[in-house]
Amino acid sequence: MRILGIIPARGGSKGISRKNIKLLAGQPLLKYTTDVASKSKYLTTVILSTEDDEILEVGKSLGIATPFKRPASLSEDTSSSLDVIKHALSFYEEKGEYFDAICLLQVTSPFRTVSFLDDAIKKFIDSKSDALVSVLEVPHEYNPHWTFKADSNNQLSITTGEQNIISRRQDLPKTYHRDGSIYLTKTSVILNSNSLFGNSLAYILSNKSTHVNIDTMEDWNKAELICKNNVL
User: Fold this and answer.
1) What SS3 state is found at 86?
2) Percent helix, strand and coil across the chain, each rounded to 5?
3) Residue 232 DSSP one-character state
4) What is the pTM of this model?
5) Phi, psi of 188 (to 5 degrees)
6) CA distances (Å), origin 216, targets 48, 97, 136, 140, 174
7) CB atoms < 10 A from the CB of 230, how many?
8) Of the ranges 15-19, 80-84, 130-134, 189-193, which one carries the lowest mean pLDDT score?
9) CB 3.0–4.6 Å: which of 8, 132, 211, 225 could bond 124 by disulfide?
10) pLDDT in tens, 23-50
11) For the purposes of burial, counting CB atoms within 10 Å of the CB of 199, is it exposed (0-12), middle (13-18) or buried (19 or more)?
């Protein structure tokens, strides 16, 4: 299977200025993802997608392919990952190069390992699913079977629609949330269904102790602490 690895890294960042190339433990944040992606045995091609000249230069210095400069129109706060992916696929299609799937790796999740990435890709291929995402387990207190929604009369009902709440924590089914580290999707699903997830979605469980999705300075400080404690 030919898989295109895409590392999106736009210049604009509201929470942390220039965070994609900000130094984390002495290294540009971008480097953590490029290092892992470049060592994967399953990714056919790995590219950086950005509209920012400085990020392009940092990417080149890190040895990652920078085959194009992303249009500014695809680098706004409202720009979608799907549009960024389609732009990359279209670029290669015009060159007569095609991929069976894409692997989206966000810079803000820096602590995935090569083995974890390759395990995810292998699971995606073996599952024959439309897509695969990395996830973390939802803590039991936030399990949807224990959460409520309010109606127009300010009356609560269980989010899942059940009439009776599950009383024991041990009886709760495990539930998961996307953690933003890895997205794998068949190209046909992206182009034909305009979806990252399709109709069949596999998953891989991330390591909670080393996971961080950097959006705020609190997240950044957590990442610094992980580096300092050498828990990777």
Assistant:
1) helix
2) 35, 20, 40
3) -
4) 0.92
5) -60, -35
6) 23, 38, 19, 25, 28
7) 7
8) 15-19
9) 132
10) 999 999 999 999 999 999 999 999 999 9
11) exposed
